[in-house]
Amino acid sequence: MEIPDFPSSLFRHIFHSFHLLCYRKLCYDPAAVSADWLKSLSGSSGNAKASGGAIGSNIVNPQSISVIGVCSLDGGENGAGVPKADFHHSRQELIAVEHVMLADDDPDDREFFLETLYSLLADVKVSVLEDGQELMEELSGLKLLPDLLFLDLNMPKVNGFECMKKIRDNSNMKHLRVIILSTSGDRQTIDYLYRLGADAFIQKPLQFSSWRPLLEKALSRNFTGARLTRKNFLIRE
Fold first, then answer.
1. What is the rounded CA–CA span in Å between residue 100 and residue 212?
2. Cα(141)–Cα(58) distance, rounded to whole angstroms?
3. DSSP characters over 177-190
């Protein structure tokens, strides 16, 4: 019997969904998690208390959301592996941001990004666009540009490379701060985007928990002064 190919995009979607479910369950409702649940990998979503933003008219408004802690497993008296949340982690000082724009056609990555962003900046306004053409039309119609644009590369209609070129060639947009989001960590791609004028580059992580330190570092950088050097262009965990 021939086994059909398993699309990488489908695998990535399943991995994202499951990892987000586990992370929410650990961090938002740790008391509901048991060692049996983690071992069986068959528990329901339980009483997870996470709530992301509701998307409407391309504008995302934050709902009630708790700050995510860093969770670990701690063997209790009976060695049951009780989850233990540690909210005493160091946090970098974030820059003042009122409006963030996200251009990304991947629904999983959008969900990861938005949930993480709202855990860092609960009151920020976020505009969400799903393709490059929609992004350029939205930017062209704005009198006041967003503080930061997070730009995916592989989008339909107009890709991120073309958007980056158009932004830097437009006199009204050329000073917009752009942070690239990509699943690829190819060095030539990163070098090319630096030459195009992007301000920073983030390689999208597979694990939801890895988004927070990356966005925290991006939002703690001072983009008002001189442009970052190539050495500091790639944001790492």
1. 16
2. 14
3. -EEEEES---HHHH
Q: Half-sphere exposure of residue 139, counting CA atoms within 13 Å on the CB side? A: 31
Mean pLDDT of 21-36: 45
Residues 211 and 111: their CA atoms lie apart, in Å, by 11
Tens-place pLDDT, residues 118-136? 999 999 999 999 999 999 9
Cross-strand partners of 103: 129, 151
Q: Which helix (H) or strand (E) holds 196?
A: helix 187-196
Angle between helices 187-196 and 160-169 (to 10 degrees): 20
- pLDDT value at residue 95: 83
d(CA 78, CA 143) in angstroms, rounded, equals 61
Per-residue pLDDT, 92: 61
What token pair was written down for 217? 């570092």
Using alpha carbons, select from 163, 55, 168 the residue that is nearest to residue 113.
55
Q: What is the mean pLDDT of residues 43-66?
A: 39
Give the mean model confidence (pLDDT) for residues 102-109. 96
* Number of CB atoms found within 10 A of residue 116's CB: 21
Nearest CA-CA partner of 30 in 85, 97, 98: 85
**With 60 as the cut, is the pLDDT of residue 32 above it?**
no
Is the pTM value of this prediction over 0.85?
no
Structure tokens at 47: 């009483």
Q: Is 168 helix (H, G, I), strand (E, B) or coil?
A: helix
